[in-house]
């Protein structure tokens, strides 16, 4: 019981120290361009995943099947690193360069290595044409 309480106390003390690091990171222009907009990951089958970054270090999204997603993000240079918390995926962290120009996108790969096209769409779009 003592070990559990000690562990819980350690987590309680460490958690407030970890949160400001998300807010302190100054996002690059590419990441900041995503605030208030939709990042589409367009797959070869035409379906797309949508991600919305928030300035507070959180993100929400919709999977290719329309299921809700959520998590936290951090900046790593010009890349955004996503950690998914809903549905929870243990040890999931994926870093990606984001497009910053709505007129063009960038070709990339998803976590599993599938080729995708990333596109920035103005506004909070839930249905978008690729």
Offer a quick outline of the entry.
This protein has 130 residues and is an alpha+beta fold. The chain has helices at residues 2-24, 29-32; strands spanning 38-42, 48-53, 58-62, 68-76, 79-86, 94-97, 106-109, 115-121.
Task: Please supply descriptive tags for the structure shown above.
single chain; eight-stranded antiparallel β-sheet; 130 residues; 21% helix; alpha+beta; 8 strands; disordered N terminus; 2 helices
Description:
With 130 residues, the chain is of the alpha+beta class. The protein is 21% helix and 37% strand. It is built from 2 helices and 8 strands. An 8-stranded antiparallel β-sheet has the order 6-5-4-3-2-1-8-7, with no helix packed on it. A hairpin with a 5-residue loop joins strand 1 and strand 2.
The global form is globular
Strand order in the sheet with the most strands: 6-5-4-3-2-1-8-7
Structural class designation: alpha+beta
Note the beta-strand portion: 35-45%
Instruction: Give the % helix.
Output: 10-25%
Give me the count of strands: 8
What profile does the largest beta sheet have? 8 strands, antiparallel
User: Which residues form runs of ≥5 with pLDDT under 50?
Assistant: 1-24
The chain-level mean pLDDT equals: 80
Radius of gyration: 16 Å
Helix tally equals 2
H/E element order: HHEEEEEEEE
The first-to-last residue Cα distance is 55 Å
């Amino acid at each position: 019981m003592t070990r559990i309480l000690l562990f819980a106390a350690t987590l309680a003390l460490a958690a407030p120290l970890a949160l400001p690091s998300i807010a302190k990171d100054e996002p690059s222009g590419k990441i900041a361009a995503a605030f208030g907009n939709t990042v589409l990951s367009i797959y070869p089958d035409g379906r797309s995943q949508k991600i919305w970054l928030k300035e507070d270090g959180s993100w929400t999204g919709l999977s290719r099947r329309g299921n809700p997603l959520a998590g936290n993000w951090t900046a790593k240079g010009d890349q955004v690193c996503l950690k998914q918390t809903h549905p929870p995926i243990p040890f999931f962290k994926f870093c990606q360069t984001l497009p910053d120009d709505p007129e063009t996108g960038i070709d990339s790969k998803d976590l599993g290595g599938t080729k995708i096209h990333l596109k920035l769409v103005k506004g909070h779009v839930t249905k978008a044409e690729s």
